Amino acid sequence: MMHCRIDGTVVSTVCHPSLKGWRLVICQPVDDTGKDQGQPVLAIDPFHAGLHQHVFITTDGIGTRHRVHDDRSPLRNMVMGIIDD
Amino acid sequence: MRLGKVIGKLVLSTQEPAYAGGRWLIVSPLGKDQYQNPRIRRISEIYSVVVYDNLGAREGDIVGFVEGTEATAPFEHPMPIDAINAAIIDSFQYSPLT
Prior knowledge:
The structure holds 2 protein chains of 2 kinds.
Chain A (H helix, E strand, L loop, with lengths): L1 E10 L2 E2 L8 E6 L11 E4 L9 E5 L2 H7 L10 E5 L3
Antiparallel strand pairs in A: 1-3, 1-5, 3-4, 5-6
Chain B lengths: L1 E9 L13 E6 L2 H5 L12 E4 L9 E6 L15 E7 L1 E4 L4
Antiparallel strand pairs in B: 1-2, 1-4, 2-3, 4-5
């Protein structure tokens, strides 16, 4: 699980079929004080989190593959929940 | 998954039999200033990655590549690769909280 902030969105038409229809967001890992920690990563977002909202994402592919119902999917990061405070 | 800019292609003469028909790209992961201005020519200092590609990305494209065991997920036979191109990016909006 990584604590991240949503910093942008990505549009891709030519992609692996398991990504079709999923919202792709740019997540910036942050520490507990909200400071940036390292480089941004991409994740699929089933919850439509808003810009600069704090979320936590999973980096485990098994759960993500289960969620997109495709066990041949190369997906790895997925937004697991939006953090209120 | 990480975003990267395709800066080159790779042709293997002798290779693993599992790689038959494979296509390889040299991808430089985007750093923060490349995210803010995708058109600058300077690439980031992050190590470039060799990415397996079956979507047909060309040089100059921005691609989303996945690393780790998930890169071998799309294959039936065991495939010794580290990174695969999962998406060719059309556009992205990036507005960091500075």
